Amino acid sequence: MNKKHVGAWALFDFANSVYPAVMTTAVFPVFFITFVVGDEGGVGELWWGRAVSLSALIVAVSSPLLGAVADRGGARKKFMLAYTSICLVAVAMMSTLDQGMVLQGFLLFVVANVGFESSLVFYNAYLPDIAPPERQGWVSGLGFGVGYLGSALGLVMVIPFAGDRIELVWFLVAGFFLVFSLPAFLVLPKDQPTDMSIAQAARWGVTSFRAIVKEVWDLKELRNFLFAFFFYIDGVLTIIVMAGVVATETFGFDQQGTIVLFLIVQMSALVGAFALATPTDRYGPKRVLNGVLGLWIFVGVAAYVIESPTLFYGMAVLAGLGLGSTQAASRAFLSSLVPAGKEAGMFGFYALCGKSSSVIGPLMFGYVTVWADGNQRPAFLALTGLFILGLVLLQRVRDPRAAA
What we know:
Layout: H1 3-16, H2 18-26, H3 28-37, H4 43-73, H5 76-93, H6 102-124, H7 127-130, H8 136-158, H9 167-187, H10 198-207, H11 209-218, H12 220-249, H13 255-275, H14 277-283, H15 285-305, H16 309-337, H17 343-371, H18 377-394, H19 400-403
Helix pairs in contact: 1-8, 1-9, 2-8, 2-9, 2-12, 3-4, 4-6, 4-10, 4-17, 5-6, 5-9, 6-17, 8-13, 8-14, 8-16, 12-16, 12-17, 12-18, 13-16, 14-15, 15-16, 15-18, 17-18
């Protein structure tokens, strides 16, 4: 492995992790629902669920095609830079939001989230290039581990401004993301020219998309993994985007209390990512995922039952342990199944499954909450069903690392 490449790659995870910590979990959802929308009875949650679902749908539809175009046109880093820039500009523009600007807040979040999630397609595609198969679990865990450290530092950074000066939070997030992502764009391997320009690759992608989909479908183990991933990651991502709202509306946390809660979650996620990185390489990512999905099922049931804020802290620690290990092991698992030269395209389908499933989860959470007259607890039982289904489907996948 080239240590500079691995370090720069992991540092991008450190940089971008401030975005989900602040913008999709601890600060912006609460700001949008309680201040920008300001309605009760689940209306704010429904608007938020629509924003998350629409952005996820856009990423899901576009990622496989754009990933294949980046592979064929040799433009992986260019695409990664373009989408990162879109995200940063939209986040900075959120400083203009005020009470009642529901549509503006909705649209800015959709644009920012599409930029963020799409940039990860091309970022993740570097993993097979910079790490050999027997070290991909460790490198993936390293990325998520330092990423959760970035999330924690980002939350600490914004705590003083999360009240009366909240407009400064969005500038701080954009600045943090920008500064620490620069090494990735400077150090990671350059795009290699191919026999196609980007425009030619785009035309090829549009006309050959059916063949691209068939290629993925014919890879049995990859196909089976993506089906399982579709369901269990939906539950994980929905809990991430709804957790801040649950903490404030069901357990009575204030804005700063929610940030402190997520600092604890980020630290436990960091521990989970690092602790299971070596077992992922030694025993294979499938065994690790079997264990952590069992943990997620327990968390989903516990969220329905518990009422004490103290117990909610304990549940959040368990969720953090599962969060870090689930994401790191899933990325390593897919990397072990990807054919050489198809990395961005296959990680595009990884995003397709992750984000198209994310259309279901937040909407389901929002509608179940409205159906329960604002009670969020039944929605967690619905999410638990997604973890169970994902765990069952995962048993159909043969793990090449475990076989080796």
